Amino acid sequence: MSLIKETDYGTPRALSEKTVSLSIDGHEITVPEGTSIMRAAMTAGVAIPKLCATDSLNSFGSCRLCLVEIEGRAGTPASCTTPVAQGMVVATQTGRLAKIRRGVMELYISDHPLDCLTCAANGDCELQDMAGAVGLREVRYGYDGANHFASTKDETNPYFSFDPAKCIVCSRCVRACEEVQGTFALTVDGRGFASKIATGSADFLSSECVSCGACVEACPTATLIEKSVIETGQPEHSVITTCAYCGVGCSFKAEMRGEQVVRMVPYKDGKANHGHSCVKGRFAFGYATHRERILKPMIRANINDPWREVSWDEAIAHTASEFKRIQAKYGKDALGGITSSRCTNEETYLVQQLVRAGFGNNNVDTCARVCHSPTGYGLKATFGTSAGTQDFDSVDDSDVILVIGANPTDAHPVFASRMKRRLRAGAKLIVIDPRRIDLVRSAHIEAAYHLPIRPGTNVAMVNALAHVIVTEGLVNEAFVREYCEWDAFQDWAAFIARPENSPEAVGKVSGVAADLIRKAARLYATGGNAAIYYGLGVTEHSQGTTTVIAIANLAMATGNIGRRGVGVNPLRGQNNVQGSCDMGSFPHELPGYRHISEPETRAIYEKIWGVTLDAEPGLRIPNMIDAAVDGSFKGIYIQGEDIVQSDPDTHHMIAGLAAMECVVVQDLFLNETANYAHVFLPGSSFLEKDGTFTNAERRINRVRRVMRPKNGYADWEITQILSNALGYPMHYRHPAEIMDEIARTTPSFAGVSFDLLDRVGSVQWPCNAAAPEGTPTMHIGGFVRGQGHFMITEYVATEEKSGPRFPLLLTTGRILSQYNVGAQTRRTANVAWHEEDRLEIHPHDAEQRGIRDGDWVKLESRTGATSLRALITDRVAPGVVYTTFHHPDTQANVVTTEFSDWATNCPEYKVTAVQVARANGPTEWQENYRQHAAQSRRILAAE
Amino acid sequence: MSPEKLTVMANQIARFFAHLGPERAPAEIADHLRKFWDPRMRRAIIAHVTAGGGGLDPLAAAAVALLAEDATVS
Question: How far is Cα A667 from Cα A715, in angstroms, rounded to an integer?
């Protein structure tokens, strides 16, 4: 193994289909029109010296190192800014050029500390490389002139250091922040010799910098460098793997020293991220080696006892014995399992196999229950496939982008950067969200329309958009007639045209002016390629599925399906939530979204698993908890989920778990759910195993082991050992064999194998004989289900209503620096940005209650109460409050209710009627909870 | 399983299919319940109706009557 160094072509790829031929240093080269001479040369292996150029950024032409000579042209133009021309003859190495380059390098080096041997970038410094490349042997100016050596380092960012003394002011960092990330946090301050890189604030941490690492990646010197490299030294080998945070699924090079991760560097050939990253994937990997990680199995008879460390053999034997006892006493349906959307496809496949074949029932579910299960139902019913329709690259061809119930800059930041780039290039944006999310207005981005709806009125709003499209003659009738069920369309059109769906009627319900709704609808229908991106603000409602269907109706009615730039795109929350759904984690579906009642599908698995499968759907997570409270559900195997913190109505969740006789938690840490567990099986991190993740664009990407599992086993091995102990044999030797079985049994995965992924990088399902390298865009030339199916979407107000006792509506969400329940990110330096959940409240509502910014406030609903500190902001509308759920000290879900989506039981996190009042500190319940958690985490060492 | 909670859930489902009218909606609602509700949930709602429990939307009640005819949960 060696360190993977991608080729840097200096300038971005030109997209023209027309080609141009030229000669560079005697090499005959043909490249797309618009290609720079620098890039053309590099395609032939001719590396022109450069400092301010890198192929992730547009050419800039400032360093004067990449000059070339062109036959018939005067001067020495910069090769990065000069495009190729037909018949051009270029020389990159001449005596004249060498002299100029050495002169330029002398100027740079005369103001650069000569501490190469002790510099952290030694061996990975482009300035050092260029000194060698140009043959620098002396600096005639000496080193005694004015310089920047005394500049103060900025060490405020927890992950990287900024040392102005080593800066050559090439602007790569500034341009990366603008062009790649789209934050515009950096600038060049001053002129001439006084020029310096500056943030808009006193330092990096207090600035608008989002710590994505794009500037660090772009820096050619040690000016911006990872602290981990400063502390550890340069890596010696690297492995390509996939991030274990959000559903974007970025590819990274894990750069290693032995089994130690030195840094995670975004991989340029990663097809989801194209070399970009966010603060989580790039820097927040330290949780894998955090001191609180549990590495030994533990058991206890009672959840009030301390844990007792035991051997793997004892833990597995105890679990198997307990599960057998429970099934013997209460019946086979008294057990269930939860697969993890943070684990690999192969691991989720094994857990559902264990439940279906080992437990003999279908009581298996996954965290998609509480996030995108409505997407699965809604898109399957309308389009025929439970997944998004596009790849991320598709956004480059969008003219109109409609974002509803999603906050991409916080929850899917790498894709958000891509989207912002397209918006800066001219695409129009519509945002439908109760909050003024960053996309509504940020640097060089402004939404054409922001529709700040009242929480819980999504269906009414999307119906109103459709109403305008139908009644104003904006339907793409040719598309509908050719690709959709015409009768169903006519029924839907008649329904949607009814007065109660008009913007004027919906305006009263949603709180959005009718005129704004009409303008947004017209833009979506007539603005060119229109794409919809949505998130949990759509799905986590009592009508979540209805909104997904309404969105699908909207896309079909306008013909915005089946080509690049359009489509319906659910932004998935966790790294492998798409994959866990694909792998048969739902209690009613086998892998590939085939209902358990289908005899022919069951027969496929019965044959290879050697068992008879139950044809009835099993319990979903909330049903499992209800059944536990009622006494018919007694044991559960939970792999990599923390349902006590992430699921709604915490009191009820705890009551359900406490009523069970054997709760098994397999995780990295003693999470909140483990407080109610009887067995703890230590899990492995994504760095310690092989497998695949499937991201929000259906892209199957390899996860590669970079170190041995610190707990002894990869998660798939633990499931297999448990299954064998239960008497259901599994004998997989490697995750590749599990994927081979998935491919043999699941038509949409038929062509997938580790060999293919190692060869082509990644593929998007369906991947089969018809699409051997995957399917970036779905439904081209027709829908998967045959014809698109319009469905009636009547708006039904949620039962959760504000009133005199609970006059405000609470909605919950995420923040950039933290991830889900925070189990990983809270154990990293990301807490520098978000160390506690805060309650966002409008100044008007705060003033009415005498609340000042930073005050402790009690947030109370009919199900529970918690206290946290207030953040006064007009980002939320009057009458709406907002918080995150990243911290167990807050336990925001003690406030959310049992209401859920009609079709899928996805909880209604986004609408809870609450009251807010000043408080003195945490509630009594929080204090008790904290004490209980501390008691529950006591560990007796092994004898 | 709490009959009150199951009643709320069944009524939500009924409301989505209500536009189909009393002739077509019960079959669709029953189909949804068969596909997504574990047998013990279906048994519980049937038992609730059989015991004279109230609260069900008429379309949901009609769907539960169809479920009661299924051999697998009776």
Answer: 9
- Find the CB nearest B38 among A617, A630, A792: A617
Average the pLDDT over A144-157 and give the result: 93
Q: Could you say which of B8, B13, B35 has the minimum Cβ distance to residue A588? A: B35
- pTM comes to 0.95
Residues 6+ apart with CB under 8 A from A744: A608, A750
Q: CA-to-CA distance for A427 and A636, rounded, in angstroms?
A: 48
Are A307 and A940 in contact by the 8 Å Cβ rule? The answer is: yes
Is A184 at the interface with chain B, CB within 8 A? Answer: no
Overall size of chain A counted in residues: 943
Q: Which residue has the tokens 């990293």?
A: A828
Q: What residues of A are in contact with residue B5 (Cβ under 8 Å)?
A: 626, 898
Q: B20: how many CB neighbours lie within 10 A of its CB? A: 15
- Is pLDDT of B74 > 50? no
Place of tokens 């001191």: A291
- All residues of chain B having their beta carbon less than 8 Å from the beta carbon of residue A898 are 5
For A73-114, what is each residue's pLDDT tens digit?
999 999 999 999 999 999 999 999 999 999 999 999 999 998
Q: Report the complex ipTM.
A: 0.96
C-alpha to C-alpha distance for A17 and A565, rounded to whole angstroms: 19
CATH 2.40.40.20 fits A808-936, yes or no: yes
Helices A486-496/A544-557 angle, 10° precision: 110
Q: Which residues pair with A154 in a beta bridge?
A: A162
Which residues does chain B have within 8 Å of residue A902's beta carbon, measured at their own beta carbons? 9, 12-13, 15-16
Q: Are A710 and A295 in contact (CB under 8 A)?
A: yes
* CA distances for A190 relative to A185, A196, A284, angstroms: 16, 6, 34
Facing A617 at nearest CB: one of B5, B16, B37:
B37
Do A177 and A229 touch, CB atoms closer than 8 A? no
Q: Which of B2, B18, B39 lies at the smallest CB-CB distance from A616?
A: B39
Q: Mention every residue, 6+ apart, whose C-beta is less than 8 A from residue A114.
A: A143
Distance CA A920, CA A625 (A): 33
| A171 contacts chain B (CB < 8 A) | no
Residues in chain B: 74
Q: Domain A298-371+576-764 falls in which CATH fold?
A: Rossmann fold (3.40.50)
Q: Does domain A386-568 have CATH number 3.40.228.10?
A: yes
Burial A77-95 (b: 16+ CB within 10 A, else e): bbbbbbbbeeebebbbeee
Contact partners, residue B65, CB within 8 Å, separation at least 6 = B26, B49
Residues of chain B neighbouring A907 (CB-CB closer than 8 A): none
Q: What is the CATH number of domain A160-289?
A: 3.30.70.20
- Specify the domain boundaries for CATH 3.40.50.740 within chain A: 298-371+576-764
Cis ω for the linkage preceding A766 (within 30 of 0) = yes
- Is the CA virtual torsion A819, A547, A409, A869 positive or negative? negative
Quote the CA–CA distance of A307 and B8 in Å, as a whole number: 40
- What pLDDT is attached to residue A648? 87
Torsion A522-A526-A527-A529 (CA) sign: positive
Q: How far apart are CA A799 and CA A643, in angstroms?
A: 24
